[in-house]
Write a structure and sequence with these properties.
Layout: E1 2-3, H1 13-17, E2 23-26, E3 29-32, H2 42-46, E4 54-55, H3 92-95, E5 102-109, E6 116-117, H4 120-131, E7 134-135, E8 160-161, E9 164-171, H5 175-185, E10 193-198, H6 208-215
Antiparallel strand pairs: 1-4, 2-3, 5-9, 5-10, 6-8, 7-9
The structure holds iron/sulfur cluster (SF4) (2 copies).
One iron/sulfur cluster (SF4) binds near residues 8, 11 and 30.
Length: about 230
């Protein structure tokens, strides 16, 4: 994204809408900090620039990788889907992605206001490689992992994006090890992240995830959410 300084009238509209505070006013002209900008195109689409000073530039590799992880209306070239993750994990009753004896796990790195470097993904994936997890094939993050040791391409590590979602499944007995690793990374990482875990309710109405999290010392307060909609055939 770029702003034509000779056209900008300094109204400040674009500064307000940028989700990562990458636009600053310098001498009454809007200026984009290229390092902070995640290429989400919110300024282009929502600032309603009165003089049409905001322009979308064609990006080159590796900067172009910022777009599918930041711009919600862009389709990922490799996975063919829009957005930073796959279909919501909470539709598992329809998709049947996670079976009995398995947990689905998602880790969302970065949020509006902070973002994340793609290199943060490797903090998790190199450690998960030692434990053994099965990554979701259609996840844009899975497409970035280049080997069985969880490494990602060196060239893209410094690229900054709005957020990236690591999605995988594990046998239920591996949960404790995964959570231990996540807690260790909490002290190293420079952005926020949230963890989602999916489990199935057993036929006798017990839920393995609640048992395990309670045993691991977590204060579990389940909430129910019911999805009503059209399932896949
Ligand atoms: S919205 Fe347009 S005119 Fe206003 S500060 Fe941003 S670039 Fe300049
Ligand atoms: S493309 Fe997004 S991150 Fe970059 S300046 Fe515009 S609103 Fe900010």
């Amino acid at each position: 994204m770029e702003i034509k300084a000779d056209v900008c009238n300094g109204c400040g509209q674009c500064v307000i809408v940028c989700p990562v505070q990458a636009i600053k006013m310098v001498q009454k002209k809007a200026f984009i900090d290229k390092d902070l900008c995640v290429e989400c195109s919110v300024c282009y689409r929502s600032a309603d620039c009165p003089v049409n000073a905001i322009r979308m530039k064609k990006l080159k590799w590796p900067r172009e990788i910022r777009i599918p992880f930041s711009n919600v209306i862009t389709t990922h070239k490799i996975t063919g889907i829009a957005g930073r993750g796959t279909e919501e994990m909470k539709t598992n009753d329809v998709t049947n992605r996670y079976h009995f004896g398995e947990f689905g796990v998602s880790i969302e790195l970065g949020r509006p206001g902070l973002g994340t470097r793609l290199g943060n993904i490797e903090l998790f994936t190199t450690k998960f490689a030692e434990i053994g997890v099965i990554y979701e094939e259609k996840s844009p993050v899975t497409a970035l992992i280049i080997d069985g040791k969880g490494h990602i391409n060196e060239e893209i590590k410094n690229e900054r994006v709005l957020s990236a979602i690591i999605e995988f499944k594990i046998p239920t007995e591996k949960l404790a090890r995964i959570l231990k690793v996540i807690r260790e990374i909490e002290n190293e990482i420079d952005t926020v992240f949230s963890v989602g875990i999916v489990s199935r309710i057993e036929e006798n109405n017990t839920d393995e995830i609640i048992n395990q999290l309670s045993q691991l010392g977590f204060d579990v307060r389940p909430n129910a959410k019911i999805n009503i909609g059209l399932g896949k055939p």
